[in-house]
Amino acid sequence: MAKPNSEKGNYENLPICRPISAPIQLDSNMLFAYPLPASYKSAFLDSPLPLFIKSSSSEENLDEPFHPTGFVREMIDGWVLSEESPKASQTFHDQSHNVPEFTPMGLPFYNMPVTFSNSDIYTQAFEMAKDQLGCRMLQRKLEEMNPFSIQTIFEQIQPHLPELMIDPFGNYLIQKLLEVCEEPVFSATIASVAKSLPSISLNPHGTRAVQKLIDLLANYPNHILEVINALTADILTLIKDINGNHVIQRCVNSLKCPQNQFIFEIAGNHIVEIATDKHGCCVLQRCIHAATEGQREELVERIIEKAVELVQDAYGNYVVQYVIDLNSYSVNAKLAHIFMSSIQQLATQKFSSNVIEKCLQQNKEDVQQEMIAEIGKAENISKMIGDQYANYVVQRALTLARPSVLGKMLALIRPRLEELKNSHFGKKIYIKLLKNYPVLID
């Protein structure tokens, strides 16, 4: 690539760094018809001017040069000189040309992304980390596993770690850094972000970086307690957040007992609040899945205590169904006996009816027959058979009932057939009953 002549200031041989094209739906000839200042010289007619672009940031001191310290200060000059600049990129950080901008038809031109050279890795890492192409260059550099490069990049971004963890591009750099760094850098990273971990976890980009950090904690067990303490104060907020809940689930999976016990204690003490939340119910199911036998028993017991309240909730019912699917005879029997005391109320509700049907189906025969006997009582079956939700529970009970009990239940249903036949909703139930139990029309 041609370089500027420092003596004559001749930039004529430099190519233009970005093409300028017409906005969508505009003829490119229209651009030149837009009135411009008399002093303006078109870049299309005169010799091309170099385009110097600096990245923008909300940081006040972004354009201040990075001042490396220690070993980096002594070595950086030699390393920079040994690097080759990419052929398609030329950046001048201390110069700029004020080319007039024009906005034909009120449509703005968007700035092209900053271009970086390899030497910028050692002086502009923070700016590069927030740029898509610059971030990729840094990640490739980290993958070389060169201790000097890792340390140099880290020293530049360390003051900005919380900011980069929530950046759309910077979070990927932090993840890569955590993967390749040694214990001193990992330890310094924890110290720099510990106080900000809850807020970072609530961010859609930050949650990924925090999950990566938690995944790697197994390699640095001395830092587990520090991370746990940072998350504990805001754990309920995290559990119920669309992004934060993934961090807690990662803790459940990646940390072992007793390191993850703090999550089980919070979950047990706030079982209804968590189970009835859209994201909390997922965390609770994850806890049950990943728990030790002792942790699972304690958590399931708390769920059983609040089962009637939970099954009536749009999200809580899934937690109870998850417990039923564990197929523990003793647990399912406990739940069945709890539900039988209010079987009609629960069977006629949208969410709880699904749980009642599952509990009936996934219990042993002796418990099933107890539930069927309760459903088959005249005051229950006569109301449930015509209900839009409870009729499914009744139909399940009929398929599982012993012959003697089935006859009694059908006898109680027969007086309701005409009513079912003449109702818009009950007509389907009527047809299904006659198909499965022809004895009803005898």
Content of β-strand: under 5%
Indicate the overall shape.
elongated
Unreliable stretches (pLDDT < 50, length at least 5) are 1-65, 80-112
The biggest sheet, with number of strands, parallel, antiparallel or mixed sense and barrel status, is: none
Give the averaged pLDDT, no decimals: 82
Helix fraction bin: 55-70%
Q: How many DSSP-defined strands?
A: 0
Structural class: mainly alpha
Distance between the termini: 97 Å
Count of separate DSSP helical elements: 28
Task: Name the assembly state.
Answer: single chain
Q: How many whole angstroms does the radius of gyration measure?
A: 34 Å
Write the H/E string, N to C.
Answer: HHHHHHHHHHHHHHHHHHHHHHHHHHHH
Description:
32% of the residues are buried. 57% of the residues lie in helices and 0% in strands. It is mainly alpha-helical and 442 residues long. It is built from 28 helices and no strands. Among the domains are: 1-52 and 89-102, no CATH class; 343-442, no CATH class.
Throw out a few tags for this protein.
mainly alpha; disordered N terminus; 442 residues; elongated
What is the fold's blueprint, element by element?
Layout: H1 29-33, H2 70-82, H3 125-129, H4 132-143, H5 147-157, H6 161-165, H7 170-180, H8 183-193, H9 197-201, H10 206-216, H11 224-232, H12 235-239, H13 244-254, H14 261-269, H15 271-275, H16 280-290, H17 293-305, H18 307-311, H19 316-324, H20 329-340, H21 343-347, H22 350-361, H23 365-375, H24 378-384, H25 390-400, H26 403-413, H27 417-422, H28 426-436
Helix pairs in contact: 4-7, 7-10, 10-13, 13-16, 14-17, 16-17, 16-19, 19-22, 20-23, 22-25, 23-25
